[in-house]
Amino acid sequence: MSTRGNLLYAQSGGVTAVINASAGAVIEAARRQRRRIGTVFAARNGILGALREELYDLGGEDLAQIRALAHTPGGVFGSCRWKLPALEADRAPYERLIEVFRAHDIRWFLYNGGGDSADTALKLSQIGAELGYPLTCVAVPKTIDNDLPVTDCSPGFGSAAKYTAVSVLEASLDVASMAETSTKVFVYEAMGRHAGWLAASAGLAARKPGDAPHVILMPEVAFDETRFLARVEATVEKIGWCTVVVSEGVRDGEGRFLAESSTRDAFGHAQLGGAAPKLAALITDRLGYKHHWAVSDYLQRSARHVASATDLAQAQAVGRAAVDYALAGRNAVMPAIKRVSASPYRWEIVPAPLEQIANREKMMPASFISKDGFGITAAARRYLAPLIEGEAASKWRDGLPLVAQLKLKRARRKLPAWKG
Amino acid sequence: MSTRGNLLYAQSGGVTAVINASAGAVIEAARRQRRRIGTVFAARNGILGALREELYDLGGEDLAQIRALAHTPGGVFGSCRWKLPALEADRAPYERLIEVFRAHDIRWFLYNGGGDSADTALKLSQIGAELGYPLTCVAVPKTIDNDLPVTDCSPGFGSAAKYTAVSVLEASLDVASMAETSTKVFVYEAMGRHAGWLAASAGLAARKPGDAPHVILMPEVAFDETRFLARVEATVEKIGWCTVVVSEGVRDGEGRFLAESSTRDAFGHAQLGGAAPKLAALITDRLGYKHHWAVSDYLQRSARHVASATDLAQAQAVGRAAVDYALAGRNAVMPAIKRVSASPYRWEIVPAPLEQIANREKMMPASFISKDGFGITAAARRYLAPLIEGEAASKWRDGLPLVAQLKLKRARRKLPAWKG
Lengths: 420, 420
What we know:
Two copies of one chain form a homodimer.
Chain A: E1 5-11, H1 19-31, E2 37-43, H2 47-51, E3 55-57, H3 63-68, H4 92-103, E4 106-113, H5 115-130, E5 136-141, H6 157-178, E6 185-190, H7 197-201, E7 215-217, H8 225-239, E8 242-247, E9 260-264, E10 270-272, H9 275-287, E11 291-295, H10 299-302, E12 307-308, H11 309-327, E13 333-341, E14 346-353, H12 378-384, E15 391-392, E16 396-397, E17 400-401
Parallel strand pairs in A: 1-2, 1-4, 4-5, 6-8, 6-11, 7-8
Antiparallel strand pairs in A: 2-3, 9-10, 12-15, 13-14, 16-17
C-alpha cells in the first residue's frame, strides 16, 4: 500500500535562470499523481517558510502559469540564505519542521538548492525517522557555481556559463573595434567564490587559438601580478587589445581576495565583488592602457533570455525525477546528472545519496586549467561545451520577457507561530 | 549623366549591437548599383584609416558574410574615438582625405557615427566643394546614447534599451526572491554621460505601478542623497527590496559625478569608479541593507543576442537610405528616423541636413521625467516602448553567436604615408 499525503517544495540559496523550471516540473509531475499526492505546497522563502508555517497552496494555480515557470527567472516562491543550526547544537528547528509537516500531512519534502540545502534535506530525513514521522526528503540540485559533487553538472550552471561565454564574445568584438584609439583592455568579472567554473566557461568564446578571452583568472590559481601584467602587455602588443576574465574569488599568494569587502552573508561567506575594477585600475596604472570593465553580478544568474536549452532540459528532468524518487520512497537522495556519452552528448538522471553531497564542494579538476594558469584546456572545453548547447528562448510580450503570474494563495495556518 | 566611381564606408565612435547591420545594408545596397559604383571600400578604424590610406576592398567578400553582419556586434572594420581638428585650425587632414578619396576615385563617403562623425562628414563635404573634388558625404546615424537631434531615435539605442530593460527585469526577480535573508537592494548602472536615455529605458521593465525599477537616477536630475536614501528605505519597508538604476553621468548639486568622487566606500576601500558600487556602498552604510550591484558596461552595447527587431530594421534602413541619398547627390545629409504614427508605431526615413545635426546633443525632454525625479512618465513610455519591440535573434552555432567572417583584404596604397 502506497503512502498518501501532501508534497512540499522549497527553493534555497542563490537562484538561477532555471530554478523555476525545476519548480514547474516538480509541480506538474506531482499533479499527475493525484491518487497519492493531495496538495502540492511551496514554502515561502525556502526553509524559513516551512519553519514559520508560511506555505503556498498550489492547488488553484493555472497549469499555463505553472508551465510559464519554465521561462521565468528568479525564485518564484522566494529563496533564503539561512542555514539550520547543527542538529547536535539545536534540535528545536528540526522538530518544529516535523511538526509543521505533520500538521499539513506533508510526506514528501523536495528542497531545491546547493550543498547546504542537501545537508538540510539529509538532516530532516534523519530526524523524521527518529521522531517516527514518515517523511521522504529529496534534494533537487541547483547552483550556478557548478560545485555540487557526484552530479556531472548542476542545473543553473549551463545557462550562467552560456551568458558568460556569449557576453565575453560579444563585448570582445566591441573592444577589438575600439582598441586603436580607445579601450585596449576589457575586464569581465564572473561569479565563483571558490571554484572557477564560470570564469572558465568564458573560455568557450574562443573558437580558435588567439581568440578572446586572452586571460582567465580562476580561484584555483594564485594571482601573480607580475606574470599577469606581462601577459596582458604581450597580448596588447601582439593584437592591439586584450580581454581578461576574472573570477570574483581570485586570491593572491597569501590567500587574500582581490576584491573582499568586510561583510559576510548569512552562511558566513565573504561577500565579494569588485575584482574587475581593481584589476582594470592596476592595468591602467602599470601599463597605461585605457580600460573598461563589467561586473554582471545577478545578471549572469537571472538571464533567462539567453538560457541554455541543455540546462533547461536538465533542470526540468531533475524536478520530475525528484517527484519519482520521492514517491518511490527513496529517502535522502538527489537526482544527479550522469554524462552517458561525451560526443554526441547524452545524459541521464540517476539517484545520488545525500551523504555524498551535503556540504561538499566539487572543485575544477587541475586538468581543466592550462599549464600557464591563464586559460582552459581541451578537456575543459569538452566538458563545458555541451552544457551551453541550444537556445531556450524566453516568451516575449511588448519586447520584454513574459514571466509566470502565480496566485500564491497562502495555506491556512494550523500551529502557533514559530518563536525561533 | 550620373557620377560613376567608388564608395567609402567607415565606422566611428562607440559601436553598437547593430552598427554592423547598417554596414551590411550599405554594402549590399551599394553592390546593387554596379552601373554606378565600382568598388565599395571600408576604412580601417574609421576616419583614421582614410587618413592613413588603410582601406579594405570589399569586392571579394561573400554575400553571405556581408549579410551575416546583420547579426554581428562590434564594429567589423574598426572604429575610432578621434576627432578631426577644427577646419580653421588645421586644413591639412581634410586636404589629405580629399587626396586619398581622389587617389581611389571615392565619390561617396558614408560615415556611420554620432554627432562628431556628422561634423566630420559635413566638413568633408565643404572642403570637397572648395577643392573642386566632387564628393557626396552622408552621415549614417548610430549611437546607444540616443542623443542625435532631428532623428526620432538613433540606431543602436533600441537594442541597448532592450538589453537594459530585460536585464533589470530579470535581475529584479532575482533580488525579490533573495530579499528575506540576503540582498535587499540591487543597483544597476547604465551608460549615459549627459542624457539619461538608457537609464530611463529601464523603466519599461515596470509593467504596473510598484514594479521594479523603483528608483531611476538620470543625469538630468541633480542627485539628492537624503531624498534618494529616503526613497530606497521607503521601498524596502513597503515591499522588502528595491531596484535602483543609475546613469553613469549622474551628478550631485555641485555638478560632481557620483562615479568620480574620491571618497571611500563603507568599508574603507577606495572607490575605483562606478556610480553603482558607490551608491550600493552608500545604501549599506546608511541604511544597513545588503546590496548587490552590476555595471554592464560594454555588454549593454554589444548584446546583439537580445537586440530589438525594431532597432535592427532601422539600422538597416538608414544604411540603405544613405546609399540612395549618396547616389542622388544629396550632400551633407543624414537619413533620420521619423515617427509617422505612435500607435500603431510606424516610421519612415527622411533626409536631415548635417548642419542641424553636427555637434548637437538631444537631451531627454523634461516631460519624460516624473515629478519626483525618480522615474519616467507615461509620455516617456509611449516614446520608448516601440523602440524595444521585437526580438532579432542571433544566429547560433555550438551554443554561441555566429558572427561574420570577412576577408578584409587591404586595397593597394597609392599615396605616400600620412605624417599627421
